[in-house]
Description:
Layout: H1 2-16, E1 24-25, E2 27-54, E3 60-87, E4 91-94, E5 97-101, E6 112-115, E7 118-120, E8 125-126, E9 132-133, E10 147-151, E11 154-158, E12 163-166, E13 170-173, H2 183-193, H3 206-217
Helix pairs in contact: 2-3
Amino acid sequence: MAGxxxxxxxxxxxxxxxTAASLTGHVCTARTGYISxxxxxxxxxxxxxxxxxCGFMGFGRCSRQRxxxxxxxxxxxxxxxxxxxxxxxxxxQVGDTCTTAICTGGCGSxxxxxxxxxxxxxxxxxxxxxxxxxNECDTNNGGCAHTCTNTAGSYSCSCNKGFILxxxxxxxxxxxxxxxxxxxxxxxxxxAKYPYSSDLKxxxxxxxxxxxxxxxxx
Length: 218
C-alpha cells in the first residue's frame, strides 16, 4: 500500500515540473509553486457480525466477526512546483532574450548601460551614472599652451593677449597685434614665420632692409 502511495505522489511531482519557453542570454531557473489536487488512497477495516451453528449436535447459535478491508480515496490539495526559465537578476527580458542590462535610473549624459548597474560613459563624463563632468584642465592643463577652460563634457584652449590659437592647443604670436615691438623683435617674428629666410638675420641684406622699412612705417 505504501508503494502505491509513493508511486502516485511521484507521478504528481513529475507532472508538476514544467519548463517555460526557452530564453537566450543571461538565463536562470526559478522554482514557482502552485496548488494541485489529487486522490490519496486509504484503507478502512470493517468487522461484520455473523452467526453459525455450534454447541451440542449443532443446536446452539454462536456469533462470530468477519474482518473486511476496503479501499477508499480522499481528494486532497497539494502544493506543487515547476521550473521556469527567467532572466537572471539585473537583466531584462525583451522578446525571448535576456541580453538587455538594467541600470536603475538609467545612464546620464548619453551613457550606455552595458551590464547590471554598469554604465559606459561618453568622453568628458564619469561616475556610476555618467553624471559627473570630467575637468580635463586638471590634468596637464588639458594640453593647452596657455589657458584651459573646462566646459560641460569638454574643454577649450585659449591664448594670452598678443597670441593666437594654433590648432586646438597651441599658441603663436600674433604678428599683426604686436605694434609696440622693436624692429629687431618684429624681424624675429618674421624670421619665425620664414625660418628658411636667413637674410632676415643679416642687417646688411636687401630683404632685412626691406622689412625694416615696412616696419618703421607702421
